[in-house]
Amino acid sequence: MTVFEYSALTDRGKKKTGIIDADSIVAAGSKLRQQNIFPITINEIKSELLNSRINSISDLFSSSNKISLFSGISKSETAIITRQLATLLSAGFPLVNAVSTLVTQTESKPFQRVLSKIKESIEEGKSFSEGLAQYPSVFSSIYINMVHSGESSGTLELVLERLADITEKQEDTRKKIQASLAYPIFMSITGAVVLIFLITYIVPGIIKIFTEMNQQLPAPTRLLISLSSFFQSFGWIVALIPLALFIVIYGFRKTSTGLQMTDLFLLRIPKIGKMIKKSAVARFSRILGSLLANGVPMLTALDISRNTAGNSVIKNRISIAAEAVKQGGELGNALESSKEFPSSSNAFPPLAIQMIKVGEKSGKLEQMLEKTAQLFEKETEAALIAMTALLEPTIILIMGFVVGFIVLSICLPIFEMNQLAR
Question: What is the pTM of this model?
Fold first, then answer.
């Protein structure tokens, strides 16, 4: 059947849009009229056109491994649909009927179109994973490969449950990070704007009184006058510096050398580097464990999971380990530090390597990778909370110091004037 998008009027005269599958436009119109819906326009949804639209918007507003907010399909929606599909399959629904049910359940129009085209491809004889592969900007390579392994092993509903767990966990972590950093970032921006406003517009009027008195001003006051003059003359340049710096760093990271250098620098920042490393290792361990548990070969699983690390240094370490595993080596030994690759030598925490080694020796690598992911996720969350708790008072102290300096610079000449008056 072909999938059509329609605009119509209900029997009460209300406008309605949606999608419907039928053999032809005429059949789609008849099907709608049987439901007391009177079509205005009916257009066939082309799979290639839909995919190109999603990809073009995704390229503009998101990175290659994330679902774009502007495509109308969020990771939260993907997780919900995945869990619902797993529930329907577990209840005995055939795959086509389960996908068809979800088409009517989801409120997202873009997701409705995607699911409809996937349903159509299944009816044409393609596998579910082949249908998903038509939309790489919506379903990641990890998602597609895990579904393929589930189809091959006959455990599709279990794989979908695991995928829902992984997606929900990632989304939950992302929201926690955003929530933790929202207040400090807001305070920093607000504080910077207020201080620049004070120094540029308020302070000059107050200081002008002292400069007209032709007396020697204290050093803090002279410094404040110089800062005020500088911001008045070159404030726009100062405002553009962060933007220019961002553009330079962004362009530098587009090169392979720049990406390596900046990622290595990030890993060497105290506290922050450890948190980045633990977060990357947690993602890698969870995805690798899930892939292996669902029958994906080790080398394929390593190739897929390394792209989730998010840091080129760690990705290189995993690539090196994959080559060693390909030659018959063990994963734990391959992930250890190597003299041949000093830039990647400390990419993996020793505890993670030891847990992987134990898993390989005991024959329970998948379970040990899951435990490794849980351990480092908790440590990352704890480190983030601690960093945020330290960041807030630090920002307040810095703002207090700057405001105190301004107040002192204004009050000192007043105190001196009072002493001279006596």
Answer: 0.63
